[in-house]
Specification:
- The chain has helices spanning 33-41, 44-55, 61-70, 76-84, 92-101, 114-123, 162-169, 199-208, 218-229, and strands spanning 19-22, 106-113, 130-138, 144-147, 176-180, 194-197, 213-214.
- It has one domain (15-229): Rossmann fold, CATH 3.40.50.1000.
- By secondary structure, the chain is α/β, with parallel strands linked by helices.
- The protein is built from 9 helices and 7 strands, in the order E-H-H-H-H-H-E-H-E-E-H-E-E-H-E-H.
- Strand 6, helix 8 and strand 7 (213-214) form a beta-alpha-beta unit.
- The chain binds magnesium ion and zinc ion.
Length: 237
């Protein structure tokens, strides 16, 4: 069974000054960990084919993951060793502490899998984020299955739609901020008040004429958050 989402104590009190949502793969983690994992432990050519089909809109996120899991084998021991080798943005752990000290709700919203995200975050003593992602079950014999506790039918593209989390979690009077890097973040564009973008997400924003703030790492993200908290909000670069 998927774990129940962590309760966000701030939701029952006063509005937070800022509610922060971060992508994981390529944003908090240096690499696209899901892509690395399924390239290494799955059918590499089939995986690349599936990703292209997803980019073209021929399959949705659930089909992408289900089909690849059927062709992958990964034992819990292999997953542990793999997670050990994955690096975080070097400024993310201090950003996490920064948010905790100020009681800013910090969500990790990912169209990837809890099995690797939790292992990687816990290795860095990051245990109190609000994780919203898909659930990967890893059997002792290496068989994989995936369930989608947050699937949102109205999206049609994502297995775990980031835009729907932002709309659901925000409270009136709050500002929302999203940090992302790629094509799994498109539904967050337009849902968050402030968008921080790098890599493919930045290119997308440029092409579409969407306002965003450029960043390269979580030191930059923290500087933006500090400016927002100081009342010097900005929404475009
Ligand atoms: Mg990403
Ligand atoms: Zn979506």
């Amino acid at each position: 069974m998927a774990r129940r989402p962590e309760a966000d104590a701030t939701r029952s009190g006063a509005p937070a000054p800022l509610r922060i949502f971060c992508d994981f793969d390529g944003t908090i983690a240096v690499k696209d960990v899901g892509n690395e994992l399924f390239t290494r432990y799955g059918d590499r050519d089939y995986w690349r084919h599936l990703v292209k089909c997803w980019h073209r809109g021929e399959i949705d996120g659930r089909q992408l993951w289900q089909r690849q899991c059927e062709r992958s084998r990964l034992t819990p021991q292999e997953l542990d060793a793999f997670a050990q080798s994955q690096e975080l943005d070097p400024w993310f752990p201090s950003f996490y502490q920064f948010c905790r000290q100020r009681a800013l709700p910090l969500y990790v919203v990912s169209d990837g899998m809890d099995a690797y995200i939790r292992r990687i975050l816990e290795r860095h003593q990051i245990t109190e984020v609000l994780l919203r992602c898909n659930h990967l079950r890893v059997e002792p014999d290496g068989r994989l299955s995936v369930v989608f506790p947050y699937y949102e039918q109205s999206c049609g593209r994502c297995a775990n739609c980031k835009g729907s989390h932002i709309r659901r979690e925000r409270r009136s009077g709050e500002t929302t901020l999203y940090v992302g890097d790629g094509l799994s973040d498109l539904c967050a564009v337009g849902a968050a008040d402030i968008l921080l973008a790098k890599k493919q997400l930045r290119t997308y924003c440029e092409d579409k004429g969407v306002g965003y703030i450029a960043y390269e790492n979580f030191a930059h993200v923290q500087a933006v958050v500090e400016r927002v908290l100081a009342g010097q909000a900005e929404t475009e670069d």
